[in-house]
Amino acid sequence: MLSDSIFSIQNDADFERLALRVFNHQYIHNIIYQRFCNLLGVTKSSVKRSRDIPYLPIEFFKQEKILSSNSLVKQIFTSSGTTGITTSKHYVTDLTVYEESFKKGFYHFYGDITQYTVLALLPSYLEREGSSLVYMVDRLIKDSESPDSGFYLNEVEKLIDMLQELTKLGKKTLLIGVSFALLDLIEQNDLKLNDNTIVMETGGMKGRRKEMIREELHQILKSGFDVSQIHSEYGMTELLSQAYSKGNGIFYCPPWMKVSVRDTEDPLSSLSIQKTGGINIIDLANINSCAFIATQDLGKVYEDGSFEILGRFDHSDIRGCNLMAL
Question: What domains lie within the chain, and their CATH numbers?
Fold first, then answer.
């Protein structure tokens, strides 16, 4: 199967070969993506290298059913949104691909999940249905095989006691939480953890607090948890893979995912290393939807393939979406 090859990528040559195979598959089987490519004057035969592949604006996940498979949809992941806002929908026909992606992705960066106790503080995600993040964390909790792993929605005191006990025992712990909930936690409690505990923020204030720059957020969290680094997870409803940062907001991708940057004034033009622009992502785990996505995030990419997120577009609609208004 093509998905088996995706998770066996070892080097850039493997990635290039698989990216072209996935593009050919999606051009044939994804009518929305095919129409988008054709409107840009790109056909299957004209794509010779991965850099020739067009990136579908992420807004299409709000407007269309993005599928490259005729199989039954097993799960619909939805983005968060306020009343009246159209949310993104990611139609997933094969959950085993998603599970393999996040399990192998976590292992790639952090090792065996059974070595950790996983404590989750994700109130805004648990309060709605269809969160891909909740799905992932729930599986990591179960795979950790620790009786102390779990979601701590309205159990702050229990969470504090658990963190302190695990710290005292020197056990490896992953505390993963949405930014505003982690800030709430340290404001109400005096915590002294250590670097056996990975504090990982998933971003976003979800309207609960004012937004702040990453450096400010991480400095407050480092001080409040008494840890040397704050880790971050970069993922979204429209992706089946995650990038991780072990500090300083510098993210790294698993072998089947790559990030590049486009010109904000010309979405079809790419930018060189360390130039700020719109983030484009190839996520080959999106084999059954669309693997080539132009996001609404702004950032820069470095020589080693790592990247930094610097903000979002001022306007939510990416230029180019009107190409499909026929």
Answer: 2-76+256-324 (2.30.38.10), 97-234 (3.40.50)
